[in-house]
Amino acid sequence: MSDKETMAVYAKAAADYAKGFARSKDTFHEPDYEAFTAGLPSGGSVLDLGCGPGHWAARFRDDGYTVTAMDASPEMASYAQDAYDLEVTVGRFENVTSEASYDGIWAFFSLLHAPRSEFPGHLLRLHNALKPRGMLALGMKLGTAEGRDELGRFYAYYSEDELRTLLSEAGFTPLGARRGNGKGLAGAEETFIVLTAHA
Prior knowledge:
Layout: H1 4-22, H2 30-37, E1 45-49, H3 55-62, E2 66-71, H4 74-84, E3 88-90, E4 102-108, H5 119-129, E5 130-141, E6 146-148, E7 154-156, H6 160-169, E8 173-183, E9 189-198
Parallel strand pairs: 1-2, 1-4, 2-3, 4-5
Antiparallel strand pairs: 5-9, 6-7, 8-9
């Protein structure tokens, strides 16, 4: 997430974002968490890529996983550190350069901020960073093309078929997918998809 306008939105809204989403019990995405962790070994290593306010990273840690939290927004990283006593690395998608390091990568509504032209390269990096048969959870918004929301954040939208093809081309084996509707930071009702896959 390197787009300056998108970053500015998260810098301004870090505290409000956390209050709205991180402090409530996120049962809405419990099926996605369960599908992802079902493929992880006990105490396995998880990268929370685009950890935002830190509630998922804290959940992984509290459930016994070794978690690495990363976010491009210094303000979000600072909030996650303060609110959940997490160690958060400030970094972008292209900073994931390790090889065979993680049992799972939780890319939960973060890679949707990457331009479509850069998305395949990011998936390849995630595949390389996973151990053999490591798990990926990929949260995206369904749609077409690219654009900005009412807050000015950049988004790239895909169909489920596109995402499955891109995952396969990056070396992943798609496992399952769940669709739903929800309101994000901008308040608009949008259709999302969460796909699980293994390396």
